[in-house]
């Protein structure tokens, strides 16, 4: 490479150029984004097999972003993630391994324990991967918003319902875009320039949530997106993106990390708003 680049800078560039990539390179981009903490441990043939492409496509992907080859690109992730990555167990492989090695079916308690372990692992990864700048930006968007609209569908709808409930405890005007009666169009159409849309969506990314994001962009509203990848279609027009990799056991993804992140955002917002109140009181104390 002509100059050094960090893993975060590389992922940002991949996200920005994602739409211009070929179909094969898009598959590789998603794999890299989802496995960047373990990429340093994988061989080019393993990645090619997982992406169902030839190893030469992996090389083309690396060269597309200015590297001489796969090993050159891999070095970026080795420098960024090797220390923490060595301590992170792959919960999916671990749980599947447990199933494969059992002579008899697991008990209800064992299934429960395995799922809780997966949730704990997801929280550990969330804590390690937190982006302070993204968190600061998210809270700032919440503080400045005149109206806050919240949308999520299907599996993520309970998260939207909770964060709407929590935000009602502040002075903010909060609107849950529930789509009740098929009224997504009507519930989102009033969003405006000084408002904020919180869009929560994971693959395969609900069409209703994507529609609300398009309306928000057209009306010049700000967007806070909580999703599973920087390559998510919702991330493209977002003002702040928070990514979450949920724990998975027995092919079921938990909601633990996502709802914990939303709770943390609410607490951070409440703290900021209370600081403003205290500053106002302190200033008033000097009035004659």
From TrEMBL:
The keyword Membrane does not apply. InterPro entries: Homeodomain-like_sf, HTH_RpiR, RpiR-like, RpiR-like_SIS, SIS_dom, SIS_dom_sf, WH-like_DNA-bd_sf. Keywords: DNA-binding, Glycolysis, Transcription, Transcription regulation. Residues 138-280 form the SIS domain. GO terms for biological process: glycolytic process. The keyword Transcription applies. Residues 8-84 form the HTH rpiR-type domain. GO terms for molecular function: carbohydrate derivative binding; DNA binding; DNA-binding transcription factor activity. PANTHER family: GLUCOKINASE, TRANSCRIPTIONAL REGULATOR. This is Predicted transcriptional regulator of the myo-inositol catabolic operon.
